[in-house]
């Protein structure tokens, strides 16, 4: 398998630490960290950990043995210290993402795993940046992507993401729902190997609208779209009340849950598996996974950062990269 690319994210955060900590144990699958070698070496010294950096070029083998890290060198713009943000490194952070994503599109890497970035400091540099997902969407030239968080027990995809709650009802349109369901269904088959995905769909309102007494979105928007897909053979269950959807009765044989908004679906998943869940971007022409946490500036350089989520993100990306390319027809 081609190596996975890992971007180490914000240089002042825990991304570099996590890469170094994981390298102490070695890697099951080949990985290449797209990062500044000097940053990694300096952070390893701060952490008191031994690290051998093998500079990597496309086409060469990636180190997997303990204590070694293959690095695709991207120089920092200014030196970085643990926990100390600098807007002067914003372009460096975005360059690592660009190089890694383009490498995936060009067949250099099999997938992309991203450590956390700091949105605020990138915006402080005068660069409009709303997050990894939107940046990669534009870079890959796709109209729509879907945010999904996954643990070993549960997958939750979102119709809307980072919107004020007051804006959510108007944002949920038939067109948007069609796009989201299409992407979710396709990628469950192509990237997760689920032949016939069963998707639970949450309603927007309490009790899924209570037959129109608590809102009309389920009747006027959500149900008609679900019916369209059911006629094509897609197994969609819902709209279901979100307060009872996340129970063993419903989740036992479900492949994913589709939630209408960010805080409807993600609190359940994060309560269950925070620190070991994975953020996955569906709808891209590349594999992209990420951690489920932020830069944790207060933990950078301390050796106390938890490797679980990055470890799981690498494992998930590798599993997807090993699946045979699907030739199943689009819905």
What would your notes on this structure say?
Helix 1 packs across helix 2 and helix 3 packs across helix 5. 37% of the residues lie in helices and 17% in strands. The protein has 331 residues and is of the alpha/beta class. The mean pLDDT is 94.
Structural category: alpha/beta
Topology order in helix (H) and strand (E) letters? EHEHEEHEHHEEHHEHEHHEHEEH
Q: How many helical stretches?
A: 12
Assembly classification: single chain
- Apparent shape: elongated
Low-confidence residue ranges: none
Largest sheet: 12 strands, mixed
Estimate what percentage of residues fall within beta strands.
15-25%
Number of strands: 12
Mean pLDDT: 94
Q: Trace the largest sheet across and list its strands.
A: 3-4-2-1-5-12-11-6-7-10-8-9
Helix content: 25-40%
- CA-atom Rg in angstroms: 20 Å
Distance from N terminus to C terminus (CA atoms, Å) equals 29 Å
């Amino acid at each position: 398998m081609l190596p996975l690319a890992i971007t180490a994210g914000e240089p002042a955060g825990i991304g570099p630490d996590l890469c170094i900590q994981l390298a102490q144990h070695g890697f099951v699958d080949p990985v290449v960290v797209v990062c500044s070698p000097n940053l990694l070496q300096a952070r390893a010294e701060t952490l008191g950990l031994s690290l051998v950096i093998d500079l990597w070029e496309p086409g060469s083998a990636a180190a997997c043995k303990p204590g070694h890290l293959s690095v695709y060198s991207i120089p920092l713009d200014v030196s970085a210290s643990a926990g100390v943000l600098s807007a002067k490194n914003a372009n460096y952070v975005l360059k690592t993402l660009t190089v890694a994503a383009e490498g995936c599109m060009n067949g250099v890497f099999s997938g992309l795993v991203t450590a956390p970035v700091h949105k605020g400091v990138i915006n402080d540099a005068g660069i409009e940046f709303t997050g990894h997902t939107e940046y990669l969407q534009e870079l890959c030239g796709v109209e729509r992507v879907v945010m999904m968080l996954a643990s070993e027990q549960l997958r939750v995809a979102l119709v809307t993401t980072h919107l004020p709650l007051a804006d959510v009802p108007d944002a949920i349109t038939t067109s948007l729902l069609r796009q989201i369901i299409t992407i979710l269904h396709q990628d469950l088959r192509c990237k997760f190997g689920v032949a016939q995905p069963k998707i639970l769909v949450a309603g927007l309102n309490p009790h899924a609208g209570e037959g129109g007494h608590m809102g009309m979105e389920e009747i006027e928007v959500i149900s008609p779209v679900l019916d369209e897909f059911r006629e094509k053979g897609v197994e969609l269950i819902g709209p279901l009340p979100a307060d009872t959807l996340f129970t063993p009765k419903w989740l036992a044989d479900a492949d994913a849950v589709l939630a209408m908004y960010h805080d409807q679906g993600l609190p359940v998943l994060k309560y269950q598996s925070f620190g070991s869940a994975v953020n996955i971007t569906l709808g891209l022409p590349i594999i992209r996974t990420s951690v489920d946490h932020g830069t944790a500036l207060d933990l950078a350089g301390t050796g106390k950062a938890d490797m679980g989520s990055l470890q799981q993100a690498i494992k998930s990306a590798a599993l997807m990269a090993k699946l045979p390319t699907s030739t199943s027809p689009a819905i």
